[in-house]
Amino acid sequence: MIGPNVWKMWLVLICTAGQVIPDKSVVFVHYDAYLDDRKEPFDSTRLRRKPFKFLLGDGNLIPGLEMGIKTMKKGELSRIMVHPSYAFGEMGCPPRIPANAEILYEVQIINFITGKDAVEFEEMSPEAQKQASFEKIVGVYHCENQLATDLFRRSMYKPAISRYRHVANLLQDFSVANEEEDKQRNGYLLKLYLNLSVCYLNVQNPQKGLIYADLALKLDPGNVKGLFRMGKALYLTGSYDRAEHYLHLAKKQNPFDKSITQAIKELEQKRRVHKDWEKMFCQKMFGSGETKLKSDVTFEEPDDFVMCIEEQIKEFLESDEKEFSFPPSFTESQLEVVKYFARTFELAFVSKIMGTEKINKIAKRKCS
Question: Long-range contacts: 215-224, Cβ < 8 Å, 24+?
């Protein structure tokens, strides 16, 4: 029971309906903390523009504030004057907080996620976790998925990936008891795979984005988000024909989606550029009939391709250009040819994803 001297004053500014926050919930709050009648707070999440997140009941707050928050609901805004014995006590927290200070908190509950199952699961031994019920695993999923989604919305993609993958592995490894549990699990996994796919696309890793989009489509072949993300991942890896196939399937499912329409326009533009390069490539290839391949290295690509790359690089060396780019659609075996001649002529080689663009290029090294 809360003692009579915990709060000297409690004023509810915004009253809301709904559930009181359960213990072991992950809570997101905004607060301003004041000393006595001072007008400026000594601590404020609003000034930092970032809500404070904590596990209710874990002892991360001063006792008086935690006791107060336990009685609140989502959206509620209150002012709480906390007695020194339930705040920073006789010692205070110099230099900001003097001894025996009463603290006025203006606190609002932004959101909370019921995390009891996730907390209890983490406290279990590995053996007990293997024996956990499906209901417990589902509870862990709901908590971890919401936390990961919160990270995603704040563009914190790598931490979000970690949480999404953690709970996806739990669900994948769990032995379901019947078809109903299997159907439910697949529904959760579909959401996780789609979320992981878009996260990997945002961190410029389309190869893994492709893997998770493919896993999503294995569960739901007509899923429009899965089709779209598969198309985006293929486009970023230079597989234009396959990308076009999946993007048009997505557009057929959702013809008015602006993101899908824009992706198709970008793909068509890239393909036009690629066709122009292929035309130039063929002209150079047929114009180099007398060129002999001098390298004894064995490549997977045909000799005509190797000789054309060698000629292009030699022309680049004789030019005033500092960089020379190759098409983003080049395969790994084609890039091996480029890498070989880059080493031979002491050039720098770069292959990476920047934004939505795959870059393959060589560059002249600066003179020391």
Answer: 215/189, 216/190, 219/186, 219/189, 219/190, 219/193, 220/190, 222/253, 223/190, 223/194, 224/250, 224/253, 224/254, 224/257
- Summarised one tens digit per residue, pLDDT across range 225-265 is 999 999 999 988 888 889 999 999 999 999 999 999 998 98
- For 154-178, give the DSSP string: TT-HHHHHHHHHHHHHHHHH---SS
Length of the chain equals 368
Query: In Å, what is the CA distance from 242 to each residue of 209, 230, 282, 289?
Result: 15, 9, 23, 33
Is the bond leading into 95 cis (omega within 30 degrees of zero)?
yes
DSSP string across 31-51: EEEEETT-SS-SEEHHHHTS-
Tell me the C-alpha distance between 209 and 199, whole Å: 8
Note whether 313 and 341 are within 8 A (CB): yes
239 to each of 102, 135, 191, 234, 332, how far by Cα in Å? Answer: 65, 42, 25, 5, 12
Query: Residue 245: what residue type?
Result: H
Distance (Å, whole) CA 136 – CA 128 = 12
Q: How far apart are CA 92 and CA 98, in angstroms?
A: 5
pLDDT tens digits for range 68-90: 898 899 999 999 899 888 888 88
Residue 114's SS3 state is strand
323-326 and 357-364 strand pairing: antiparallel
Handedness of CA 291, 294, 296, 298 (dihedral sign): negative
| CA-closest candidate to residue 167, choices 141, 148, 188, 185 | 141
